[in-house]
Structure prediction request, 741 residues.
Amino acid sequence: MKLDGPYDAKQVEDKIYKLWEDSGFFNPDKQAQTNADFTQTDADKKRNRGVSVSQRKVRVSPRQSFTIVMPPANANGNLHAGHALVMTLEDIMTRYKRMQGFKTLWLPGLDHAGFETQVVYEKKLEKEGRSRFNMQPQELYNEILEFTLENKKNIESQIKKMGASCDWSRLKFTLDNDIVKEVQRTFKKMYDDGLIYRGQRIVNWCSKHQTSLSDVETESKEKKDAFYYFKYGPFTIGTARPETKFGDKYVVMHPDDKRYANYKHGQTLPLEWINGPITATIIKDKAIDMEFGTGVMTITPWHSDVDFEIAERHQLDSQQIIDMRGKLLPIAGEFAGMKITEARPKIVEKLKAKGLLEKIDENYVHNVPVCYKCETAIEPQILPQWFVKMKDLAKKAADAVKAKKIIFIPDNYRKIFLYWMENSIDWNISRQIVWGIPIPAKICDTCNDGFPDLENTLTTCPKCQSTLRGDPDTFDTWFSSGQWPLVALGYPNSKDFKTFYPTTVMESGSDLIFKWIPRMVIFGLYLAKKVPFGTVYLHGLVNDAKGQKMSKSKGNVINPLNITEKYGTDALRIGLVMGNTPGQSLALDENKIKGHRNFANKIWNASRFVLTNLARIDADNYADLRGSKVVLSAHQKQHLKELKALVGEVTKLMDNYKFYIAGEKIYHYFWHTFCDKIIEEAKPLLADSKTRQATQYMLLEILSTSLKLLHPFMPFITEEIYQQLPLKDKKECLMVAKWPN
RNA sequence: GCGCGAUUAGCUCAGUGGUAGAGCAUUCCCUUGACGUGGGAAGGGCCAGGGGUUCGAAUCCCUUAUCGCGCACCA
Prediction:
């Protein structure tokens, strides 16, 4: 007997994965099921009364496509628990639909992950005592490329380890030539359509990584700082950042503030400031909060978002105070060249000596934006960069969602999506890093304007005739991954694009509801005029057993590959899914996985029992059992009726993406109904020649149906057992067997 | 400050109008030939608090509290 106990995943998984790969059925072009499998007979029709419309449709149009484009996994490290959940959920959806006869494509992909990967690589350099700033860009690029390609291979094999039934023949990488070209074409197209512009605008600058970042690449961190009140002419101004105040020559107040009604907008007044006398100009602007501080502030447009906006509104001058390394510029006089932290107390000291310090509030708590990777405080800077005009694009995306062209699971993410779309600001897509897709543009040294140049033909500035140089920047990763569903399918002209776009489901982590999902919708609508997917399924974070966020510093990181090593992939998969509601974070408990390993063993042993009893008793003809006339007892008929009810229930749950309940139902049925009751009852019946054959038939029927229902969740063990079942209408593999109805 | 989510058995969580559920953990029993990674049984919850709607509320509405996540900011 092949099913020797206990179940040993190691003996099975690699072998079975190879069987699937060799079968070619990961590729939707290889059709597994004949149309005859799905032709509705009268008996089917009768059976299917009361079954949902979507299920009937499956049989009527069998080769309708079902597509998932895999969120491209970052090729800069190992598979983590979050990936494991992604692979499991998407594989469940894919296997389910494949078994239902859909033309099913799950397209795998990997991401060069621009800034993310560069940060990982810079850490590596740091450990080696090297720095990217001492390297030629090309040299750095080549090293990161090598690093990424190595990791890419690694993570591919880890995805396979999870049992992912994706079509490897269609594997895409975000730096594939065709993708790079298409992303660059999009840039040009958007520029021509007036949706991308070169702007001299304020951006988030990380002085450690020496690049600008988009809003979603910053985090806010609560900080307690001193808050200083200074005399500024007749006013008192408050600030937490005295070091930015050198160039402040505008003093701003709310137009309705009665306290300052005597001062007129545009009025100037002389006053004494840090490095001597200056002339200040009064500005009235509604952005001022009358309740805060004294209701008066000076502005530093070069180093503050809010101030920048005020300056834009009133067309005010602005001056850089802090350089790109976080040091003070010559405007700071004696403080020039100092780092902010060093200069701050000295500046306060000087102002105090001049009698301009009014008071200090030591307990000022505020949130400061920091780089999401290194937690360095973001220094806003004004830089010439490429920006995407978001307003109209975002509105179209919001309209599509409002028109229910995209459904969110869970539903509340719809609100979050819409909120985000209504508050989006122009998107800075220039990054000052080498690892990414180059921005195909030329920059003029004289007028600083930029011009897209796909063919690399421009040499002189169309505006001022000066010399142009290539833009050294690369695209924000989200600019390319935002186009992922399009470019992965070969937009605009490929056969795949025509067949599989728009895709059916986008399954992704809920944290990407801002970063990624909206951008895909925007690009999909802009380029293909169609939403990129009809359903967005968002899973939550995978936490540790106590529900704590995994982190290296806490030392509670669970490596999914260790779990599969110990308990088998199937156990991990069903453990990740059962009881995991979409959108909610999940506690990954090793004990729980152990329980599911036991379940796998239970399946193994029950199958052995059934097979042994088929073999021992009726060795010659058990393969024909299903076709033979068997007389079932009323009780046995009842069992089959219950099985049918389970199939209906599970199918409905699967259709509604309620995998967490579907999995639990099958688990429960298999263990506590099939094993505990039906098999136990069957033992004496198998010993009696009068009831033997009917019982054999019933057991095989229930076992084979259960394996089909379990297959999307636990593909390896179910396939291994299926391969050994004596079924008459057996498929090449369970993966493409027909989902029961 | 705003938004979203959570609050149910010791723990992790399901359950969206009809007498409270799962897994794990706990206690007791079972050395039978699929499986001890097993089987049988048991204990354990005023479903966060308050109010409302309803014949009936864990479930719908309002409100309070606590926790988590996100967003925005006050110079």
